[in-house]
Design a protein that fits this description.
heterodimer, A: alpha/beta, Rossmann fold, Alpha-Beta Plaits, 2 domains, two-stranded antiparallel sheet, elongated, B: alpha/beta, nine-stranded mixed sheet, 11 helices, about 30% strand
Chain lengths: ~325, ~290
């Protein structure tokens, strides 16, 4: 089983549109019926808006515990406020309370409270879902607005997707990654077989691509790069090409700016299904072929075969 | 007054709007700009601050003195993050898992634990050519937790140095939020006076806007919306704004020339002088919304 994760660093470069196109393309070729889908962007889960999943199973996700002050026992000494390093203890007219969003769940206040008035309480911070989608089984989740533990929820989604792939001997797990480079990204990529970075030819896109590539290298995940909306700023696209070449990373394709992409989003469809002959669809089909070719090589886990592996192990500066 | 620019969905134009808003505000106000997207901060690419103050930040992780430690295991027991383990007579600390809460240090019966700064990122600050006091947090690659850096950034207050000849009308702080709708977005909004949502008129933009709008509502913050790339999608964002009582304060049309200018590192108001008037009006609308 292989895990392909779509990432970007910068948000809004087209990750989900690429994943939807890949899911559609995979449903027809040699991968038909072979793919498990996972949406690892749990605080902005958009894949379902184009895959129209039918929910088969939903479970609450308990992200951890937060401190709660028992107001009857509390003597208002304020010790907890001074020891909390997360600014989570707040004074109100009704006395000291814990801001559950700021609370890190460390329980330091529980141990330091002189009157033992603080206890930890488990909380539900989101829900995990398993669905049947247009292009295969989909594992996804929703983190409730403002919650933490998104990394844990991402891990949960990925583990369930991989377990199903192993059980049913499906060779590919296709993962829609979150933006950024922190906890949820690490949860989405660590141990994946290949990452496709979707970037855009802007000064911000390149800066974030660089940080995403450094993160992938840190976790030993090989990477390919695809430049979306490449014709909007050709100088920027050349800059990305040059950067990738200098760091031994393959840029697999350029996808042109194409109004069919937002059009497909509004229609709630993969662009390759919505307008198969649109310039973006043709380019994405070519990207998919290249990615399949790379995945088809025998990549033993995170220590991949020659071209891609050597590329990814090089130092992005 | 503190204004947060947030979006939910990434790439809708938060930094584009925040930087232009800061530039027009700096014409009459003393402006402080905080780039709160510590994973992928980009505002400096547009505002060009001279970042002359650098500070390493991170979390305080425990170090166990092997001479004093009697391997009683109290620290491992109370640590909620499994960052400490006692193996035989040795107490091991896993820095990567530590949240820096300090609980083990206080609870050690032998007082065998001291704390050291584990650097997980940095804060750089300085002044932009427009006289904006600028600071950004930057998380180091490979780190998982941006929150400690963000908390430090909010406390950093880079020195104000407005360039106008008359005294500034007021002090404004503009915070460029990270994407998503989880805890770093909440932390960015905490203590703010107004949230400006930048969205695009697509189902993705709308879905994620609803997520962040819920946070602002929970925090009791007034908010308004900028619709970017107006015309690329549908009218569902408009309908949502009406039914949720969110004023639409500005529309930025989908225009390839704008996209090109931003790609090259210009701000909107630099790329198109007409936008200066539109952003001045936007700022006044925001001020009016807050004072209502």
């Amino acid at each position: 089983m292989k895990q392909l994760v779509i990432l970007s660093g910068k948000g809004g470069t087209g990750k989900t549109s690429v994943v939807a196109a890949f899911a559609h393309l995979a449903s027809a070729g040699p991968f038909a019926g072979q793919v498990i889908l996972a949406d690892a962007d749990v605080d902005a889960a958009n894949l379902e808006l184009v895959l129209h999943p039918k929910r088969l199973d939903t479970e609450p996700f308990r992200g951890g515990e937060v401190a709660v002050i028992d107001e009857d026992q509390c003597v208002q000494c304020g010790d907890c406020e001074s020891i909390c390093r997360f600014d989570a203890i707040v004074e109100t007219d009704a006395g000291w309370i814990v801001d559950p969003v700021a609370c890190e769940g460390c329980a330091a206040c529980v141990h330091q409270c002189p009157t033992a008035s603080i206890a930890m309480q488990e909380q539900t911070v989101g829900e995990y879902a398993y669905s049947d989608s247009l292009y295969g089984p989909l594992h996804h989740a929703h983190l409730y607005p403002g919650q933490e533990s998104s990394g844990k929820l991402v891990t949960e989604v990925r583990q369930r997707a991989c377990r199903q792939a192993l059980d049913e001997q499906r060779p590919l797990v296709l993962i829609d990654g979150p933006p950024g480079i922190g906890c949820p990204v690490i949860a989405a990529v660590s141990g994946a077989d290949l990452a496709l970075l979707v970037t855009e030819p802007t000064v911000a896109g390149l800066q974030d691509l660089r940080r995403a590539l450094q993160t992938l290298r840190h976790f030993g995940v090989p990477a390919l790069v695809c430049i979306n909306k490449a014709d909007v700023y050709p100088v920027g696209a050349q800059g990305i090409d040059a950067y990738c070449r200098a760091n031994g990373i393959d840029t697999v394709a350029r996808v042109p700016f194409d109004p069919s992409v937002p059009g497909a989003m509004v229609a709630g469809a993969a662009v390759t299904a919505y307008r198969p002959d649109a310039p973006a669809s043709l380019a994405l089909s070519a990207v998919w072929q290249q990615v399949v070719a790379v995945l088809a090589k025998d990549l033993p886990g995170a220590a991949p075969a020659a071209t891609v592996g050597d590329a990814a192990r090089n130092n992005p500066d | 007054m503190r204004i947060v620019v947030a979006s939910g969905k990434g790439g809708t134009g938060k930094t584009t709007v925040a930087t232009s808003l800061a530039q027009v505000a700096a014409e009459r106000d003393a402006v402080r700009f905080l780039d709160c997207d510590v994973e992928t901060p980009n505002a400096a690419l547009f505002l060009h601050p001279r970042l002359d103050v650098h500070r390493d930040v991170g979390i305080r992780v425990p170090r166990v003195d092997p001479q004093t430690c009697n391997a009683c295991g109290t620290c491992a027991e109370i640590c909620r993050f499994n960052a400490i383990a006692v193996v035989g007579e040795t107490t091991l600390v896993f820095d990567d898992l530590c949240h820096g809460c300090g609980s083990c240090t206080w609870m050690c019966p032998e007082q065998a634990i001291t704390e050291h700064l584990l650097v997980t990122g940095s804060i750089d600050s300085g002044t932009t050519p427009d006289g904006i006091a600028f600071a950004r947090g930057m998380m180091n690659v490979g780190q998982a937790m941006g929150m400690p850096i963000l908390r430090e950034l909010k406390k950093s207050s880079p020195a104000l140095s407005p360039t106008m000849t008359v005294p500034p009308r007021r002090t404004l702080e503009i915070r460029d939020a990270p994407p998503g709708a989880s805890c770093p977005v909440v932390e960015t909004m905490r203590g703010a006076d107004f949230v400006l949502f930048v969205t695009e008129p697509t189902p993705f933009g709308l879905h994620d806007l609803k997520q962040v709008a819920a946070i602002a509502r929970e925090l009791g913050l007034p908010a308004g919306v900028v619709i970017n790339r107006d015309g690329i999608g549908d009218a569902a964002v408009d309908a949502y704004c009406v039914e949720s009582d969110l004023p639409i304060l500005l529309r930025i049309p989908m225009d390839r020339r704008i996209a090109e200018a931003i790609a090259a590192g210009s701000t909107l108001v630099e790329a198109n002088l007409d936008d200066r008037h539109r952003f001045r009006a936007l700022l006044e609308r925001i001020l009016a919304e807050v004072t209502v």
